[in-house]
Amino acid sequence: xxxxxxxxxxxxxxxxxxxxxxxxxxxxxxxxxxxxxxxxxxxxxxxxxxxxxxxxxxxxxxxxxxxxxxxxxxxxxxxxxxxxxxxxxxxxxxxxxxxxxxxxxxxxxxxxxxxxxxxxxxxxxxxxxxxxxxxxxxxxxxxxxxxxxxxxxxxxxxxxxxxxxxxxxxxxxxxxxxxxxxxxxxxxxxxxxxxxxxxxxxxxxxxxxxxxxxxxxxxxxxxxxxxxxxxxxxxxxxxxxxxxxxxxxxxxxxxxxxxxxxxxxxxxxxxxxxxxxxxxxxxxxxxxxxxxxxxxxxxxxxxxxxxxxxxxxxxxxxxxxxxxxxxxxxxxxxxxxxxxxxxxxxxxxxxxxxxxx
Length: 357
What we know:
Helix content: under 10%
CATH topology: Porin
Number of strands: 18
């Protein structure tokens, strides 16, 4: 993958006669995460989660990304290559098979082509690998109020592979429909496809979206469906205070009985000055059948983040986070006999820096 990056840079700079051609952006995101449990495996969060600040008690690269894009006028593309502990975690569940699997797709966050069709206000078609339409928090930490992401984000798709059609009815209402390989999968693990939808409203102060997902998602199983709904909203309460909320409800049919999960989270961000902002997240996630977390439990987290922007391309975040689980699922230290121990709580203190270009 790496030799592709300088080649793309050369292509982007090769046509000075086309001023509106290819755009190049990127960032580097590093962190130090202190975990009070001092996990013996050096990892915070649960297996398969922790797409931010996964490694504990060490300085680590969360993500470094390069984005090369061309706006659809009428045809465009976007390629985002990402490297680090975060991309490694988010691709870990990719089904392995011929010409697919985590080793192949680990560095590809987005690779899509787009076409703006002159229908009404403009119908946008996009195909390939692209960010998920589900969720309040995005995959890259620089775009979120907090540095780490909540359990609702960790247990729902960050990316998807398929075809999207998006249309804006007017300045407020828009809709999307997706035909997808599956639930955060590039290489499909069965013969069935999934469908996703979104209906959204955007105003000067208030915005909300209702997202859905439906399709058979068990490996090698085309008959047991997963149904999922996600509601997000954001309010600009004052010139300095923004509020957010999200709620999820999911159902997975299984041969041995259906699994159900739901969650909700509240967010607030206060802009103190052009330099500083403070953000808070409180979250409740009920995985009553242990479908995602591996144990029948309720997960709760409270997160406080101080964001500093001393220069336009530089973002510092200092974060304190406390998680409470309904079962001992967080890795801790060894006991007197040398065996691994587990805790039902986890406290993190994180310092991060992101430089963008």
